[in-house]
TrEMBL record, chain A:
The lineage of its organism: Bacteria, Pseudomonadati, Pseudomonadota, Alphaproteobacteria, Rhodobacterales. Residues 1-19 have a biased composition (Polar residues). SUPFAM superfamilies: Folate-binding domain. It comes from the Bacteria. Residues 1-21 are annotated as: Disordered. InterPro entries: SoxG, TrmE/GcvT-like. This is Sarcosine oxidase subunit gamma. Coiled coil: none annotated. It holds the Pfam family SoxG. It comes from Salibaculum griseiflavum.
TrEMBL record, chain B:
One of its GO terms (molecular function) is sarcosine oxidase activity. It comes from the Bacteria. This is Sarcosine oxidase subunit delta. Pfam families: SoxD. GO terms for biological process: tetrahydrofolate metabolic process.
Amino acid sequence: MSETSALNGRGTEGTTTVRDTGLQGMITLRGNLASTKLKAICKEITGQPMPKAGQAHVSGDTGLAWMSPDELLVLVPHGQAADAVARIDAALAGQHFLAVNVSDARALIAVEGAGAREVIARLCPVDMSPEAFGPGAFRRTRMAQIPAAFWMEQDGSLRVICFRSVAEYAFGLLSTAAKSPAVGFL
Amino acid sequence: MLILECPYCGVTGEETEFHGGGEAHLTRHGPGSSDDDFENYLFLRENPRGVHFERWRHVNGCGKWFHAARDTATLEVFGTYSAQTTEPPQDIKDAITAKRPGWSWREFK
Ligand SMILES: [Zn+2]
């Protein structure tokens, strides 16, 4: 288990800020998302119901995000990831599934403030208008030259996930995009 | 710019979110096949100007492979559909016919 996050708690200042959220437990869960047992163990671990396509149910550092028709991202506090994998393994024994602790292969960055939507819109080919992307929406896409995923919190801020190996690049992208003020298009 | 809708996650994205996988609906000819069949499978492609069928992967997204029917000259997309099929479904063929009456592609029309 990693003891520090890739960005080591770094953050920027301004009206729109970019901030490393620190260590976050993340589990890749592949399997039949319609399975009763799978839904039950996910609910037991996160307290959240199964998200629909393009959605994430997240509260604090716990939640579920829809990654693909057979893949879910399970968010738990960093120290609980290994235990959560063991609980999933036990609950789904006998089913065709895969649960892997990927916490230390990823980074999680918060983009907060009035221009948060525009920061993402400057980097990703995604419609970030409020009609198209609201709280609870989740999207996997391309952020400049790297794959990334993000969801919107209830307060309108965004959480961006990328691979740990490109965390430096992602932070650079986001903080540069957050420097110039929002143009107010979105 | 090509705009594609992934039939697996429902996301509509532009082409940099996807990766092209070449011509669709190839029949694999492996060991034991005739030289002609093997050559055809490996090298011979339709490469049309107009209606075309391709494989695409939602690489910066859900990761799934799917099929797309589009026009190579105009970039108009007639539809995308599941990878779990060996020929275009009827609704895709109908959508093409509505826009390009008389189209044909390999054995399909
Ligand atoms: Zn997709």
